[in-house]
């Protein structure tokens, strides 16, 4: 392919190469970063060719009529149940989406998939398209496709539909017709969601910046560091450097390298103080993240100082219900929890929750963090049923909005495990801790402090269950990690050493 490939023939290659389209769509669907980086050039070419075909086929000045396309496929029972539960809501396809104007073509594909996967559920998507107000690029590709006669319409990545009626198909007992309508500019639910996404995702138009940010947000921090370091080496522009230092610092912090993160934030602040006034809104995220580093290091006084610097700037520059203010209130609440100042903790948590409910989508990760903080307060005061209720709200949001191996999901399982343990259910506690541990093993480096926390917590439950051999092994691993990743005076390091010494005396 590499020898003969031309960027203007991306759709032809997509439909011609039997290995290419399943590999590409699997990578996009499952966020397989290594593959996405290797074929990023092809993804860009394919999207651009689709946009060009779309603008020719559906010019804005034309009165294009609505039409229907079909797609047949199989899904698991679990995914089918999620579709049923989301009726009336939105469904997004992160991959390129092949459809046909011929119902029979898609129905045959669904039936063939069912024969190959008898334990799954067949779906015939009936997709209603209004080209006049569509927000996604799509086009008929028969004229440029390597496969003729399928009347294929190809949609670009991230097409979003609203789910309508779901009915059982007569062709097979395990086949359903699911009506979808392509969202458009007038869809208020979509507009609220996309406006929030645009605000929270990387604002630059540079595709490599955006890819690096997306990769980091999904938890692939090592790959993100590679992308941002390459960008840093290629620029002399101070504003670009400032932004890259910020992204690199957050990636290092996520990997537990707090010293390098602080050094990068310091470089960014030097540039920002040269370019902007002391209370410019651009400084707020930097101060906020420096506070997060000190929080992770257990220096809560310095963390509170930097968090409050960020909050003061945001209060001067942002409207009262801006989500960034909610983030500031939320994290300051977390500091007060560590300082055992329950009055201040509740004050700031409630402010964060009020803002979150007014300004964030119901499944936003920042809202999940606020619920988690309130759950923690209930846990600390011994109100375990209330704590479990808020932690379950956190988990419900995070399972919908985060990747399966995101570190925040691990922390939520860890917190739920703590409630189970406090209520005397060590078996359930251990199950949740093991879930948290598996997520961390896939998303964090082996010596990350959160890995130490997992080993310590699992060791503690084994100790309570009388299995001192497994308790000792886990405690020892936690202490070994602490010696490599935490300062000598850190609370966690001190507690983990104390736990190991206690079980050694049993």
TrEMBL record:
Q: Name one GO cellular component term.
A: extracellular region
SUPFAM superfamilies the record matches: ADP-ribosylation, HCP-like
Where are TPR repeat segments found?
284-317, 368-401, 452-485
Which Pfam families is this protein grouped with? ADPrib_exo_Tox, TPR_12, TPR_8
Residue ranges of every copy of the ADP ribosyltransferase domain listed in the record: 7-175
SMART domains tied to this protein: TPR
Q: Which UniProt keywords apply?
A: Repeat, TPR repeat
What Gene3D superfamilies does UniProt report for this protein, alphabetically? Tetratricopeptide repeat domain, Toxin ADP-ribosyltransferase, Chain A, domain 1
InterPro entries tied to this protein: ADP-ribosyltransferase, TPR-like_helical_dom_sf, TPR_rpt
Q: Which PANTHER family match?
A: NEPHROCYSTIN-3, TETRATRICOPEPTIDE REPEAT PROTEIN (AFU_ORTHOLOGUE AFUA_6G03870)
The name of this protein is ADP ribosyltransferase domain-containing protein
